[in-house]
Amino acid sequence: MFRLFIDMDGVVADLDGYLYERYGDVIHSEEWKIEFWSKGDHIEMFYELGVTPHKNYLLDFTNYYSDRIKHVSFLTALPHTHTCSRGIMLSKMAWACKYFKNIPIMFGPKSQDKYLHCRGRNDILIDDNLGNIRDWEEEGGDAYWCKNVYDLRRVLDRIEEEIL
Predict the structure, then answer these.
(1) Which domains does the chain have, with CATH numbers?
(2) pTM for the whole thing?
């Protein structure tokens, strides 16, 4: 039996689209992230994020393989600063309830802590952060890189082909 952990930002929630729409670019440098989150005025932005166009495919996938996947959850992270962590947490939870009512949400708590949830070879992670992919695999789990919200179906098909 497998456990499936799915990152939210960049995999099912379109953070890049939100940033591009508001700032004209998607910036991923660490310095930019720290400055962005330190402002604290983005507390409710996660609720406004778009959802992957493969939402129904993901739900069908998890239902179809429910005999092999005993646990499905979102595994997401809180921002770099603590100034808005509680608000971001609530916003992410509300977003998940809006689009995926039956998928629980877990927090890393930080992105670099996600590997702590891996118990070995029956744990699968889908994430857009290559560092998280590497750390998860070092713990013995299977990890799949998802480039963005438009790439999710390809990743699910690959999991089906290679594991399930």
Answers:
(1) 2-162 (3.40.50.1000)
(2) 0.89
The tokens describing 57, both together, are: 């495919």
How far, in whole angstroms, is CA 130 from its chain's centroid? 12
| Per-residue model confidence as pLDDT tens digits over 76-111 | 988 766 556 777 888 899 999 999 999 999 998 778
Output the six-digit token pair for 120: 């070995």
Tens-digit pLDDT profile for residues 103-115? 999 998 778 889 9
